[in-house]
C-alpha cells in the first residue's frame, strides 16, 4: 500500500491533477530573441554588475512568452472588431491598444498606448 510520505518520511506534496496552462498558447516559434544581444543590453546599464550565464536565456524566453500573450490578445481584438468576412488581414496598432487596455498585466504599457488614436484615419 502506498503511504502519503516521501522516502525521507516527510508528508508528500499534493499532486495537482489539472494540467498547467500552455504559456505559449499552442504557438510554434521559429525565432528567439538573441541571447548575446540581451546580455550586451543588460551589461550596458552601469547599475548592473555581472550577469549570470542563464539570466539572458531566461529573459529571452520571458520576452517570447510576453510577445505571444500580447500578439494573441491583439489578434483577439482584431477578430472581435471584424465585421463580416473572415476577419482582418492584419493586426492594427488600435488592436494592440485595446489589448493593453483590456488586460491589467499590460498596465505598464498604458502610457505608451494612450498616445495611439482610437480609430485609424481614413484616406491619405
TrEMBL record:
Main subcellular location: nucleus
Chain intervals for the UniProt region annotation (Disordered): 1-21
CDD domains per the UniProt record, alphabetical: HFD_DRAP1 (cd22906)
Keywords linked to the UniProt accession: Nucleus
Kinase as UniProt keyword: no
Residues in Transcription factor CBF/NF-Y/archaeal histone domain copies: 32-100
Molecular-function GO terms, alphabetical: core promoter sequence-specific DNA binding; protein heterodimerization activity; RNA polymerase II general transcription initiation factor activity
Matches recorded under InterPro entries: CBFA_NFYB_domain, Histone-fold, Transcr_DNA_Rep_Reg
Compartmental location: Nucleus
GO CC field: negative cofactor 2 complex
Name of this protein: Histone-fold-containing protein
Protein source organism: Dissoconium aciculare CBS 342.82
Amino acid at each position: 500500500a502506498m503511504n502519503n510520505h516521501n522516502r525521507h518520511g516527510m508528508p508528500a506534496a499534493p499532486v495537482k491533477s489539472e494540467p498547467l496552462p500552455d504559456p505559449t498558447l499552442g504557438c510554434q516559434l521559429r525565432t528567439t530573441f538573441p541571447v548575446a544581444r540581451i546580455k550586451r543590453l543588460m551589461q550596458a546599464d552601469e547599475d548592473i554588475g555581472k550577469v549570470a550565464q542563464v539570466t539572458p536565456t531566461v529573459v529571452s524566453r520571458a520576452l517570447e512568452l510576453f510577445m505571444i500573450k500580447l500578439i494573441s490578445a491583439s489578434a483577439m481584438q482584431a477578430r472581435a472588431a471584424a465585421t463580416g468576412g473572415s476577419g482582418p488581414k492584419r493586426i492594427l496598432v488600435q488592436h494592440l491598444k485595446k489589448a493593453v487596455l483590456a488586460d491589467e498585466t499590460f498596465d505598464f504599457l498604458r502610457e505608451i498606448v494612450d498616445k495611439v488614436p482610437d480609430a485609424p484615419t481614413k484616406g491619405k
